[in-house]
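QA checklist item 7 of 12: single-chain prediction sanity check.
[x] sequence parsed
[x] length recorded as 300
[x] structure emitted
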Amino acid sequence: MRNKACLVVAFAFLWLSFTFASQLEFRATDYLPLGVGYTWHYLDSSATGIIDTVINTIIDDTTIPGGPAYVIVSTSADTAGTSLVQIRSDGIYNLTFIGEMKILPSTFRIGDSWAMFSLDSSWDSAGFTYHIQMDVESRAETLEDVTVPAGSFSDCIKVISDGEIHLQVFSGGVPFYDTTFRGNLREVWYAQHIGVVRSIDHDITGVSPDHFGVLLSCSFAEVSESPAKPVNNDLVVAPNPFNSACFIRVPEGAKIEIFDVTGKLIESLKSENGSAVWHPKDGIGSGVYIINADVNGRTK
């Protein structure tokens, strides 16, 4: 009887804790702080199980349609890339080359769900037409305490993302293959005033090991201007690679020219306050493009 009473009390406590947490309203900017100079250092594993360290640094900010945006450079032992994160009225977005992803709504409660990412694309290859429809949903699952090398963080918001993928293959307009399956499950823990402290990407097929990341250290020494960069890094493109548009940061007063790999001039842009946004015109296909910034006769 005593054990049963203890179980009832424990269950009641957990239920009350969840009920209280679900009534709290959280702000995205409190759990994903953004500012020029902010740095996060992660221990990261790849899909092949290789362990590496990744440093994410916000090197610049700008304003593009929709709201303020931040340029993040991610570096590891053998790779480097840039991404663009934007704060909008309805949430924080990651602008990637395949589309925009809603990381967190501007305000939310435990139990809330939101559409994170959607993709509807078709292409032709080897005589077949492929069509893929992908819809990913995220939800604020619960509050959990998390301990990582960077420290112990209480009441972290655990966000779970998963989705459904519908793939169709046509041959001469006739359905050849049609399947629907679930995508990998992603879990992310956000600590207040810190950001992501832990993440796990679960391979639901079991073919590859889970991909994880844990926070080693972070710094929030915000600077009023962009941190000094080497001369050969004065030109920044984000996101890179990109799809419908990209943000270009250049030295003040630079003339921007975009070429294809044959050396043909595709477009010239005017920079404003050291930046510009390139929206490729219709008819410009996917591929590699070279961005040239001319400053007083010197190119980058």
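[x] summary fact logged: The longest strand covers residues 128-148.
[ ] second reviewer sign-off
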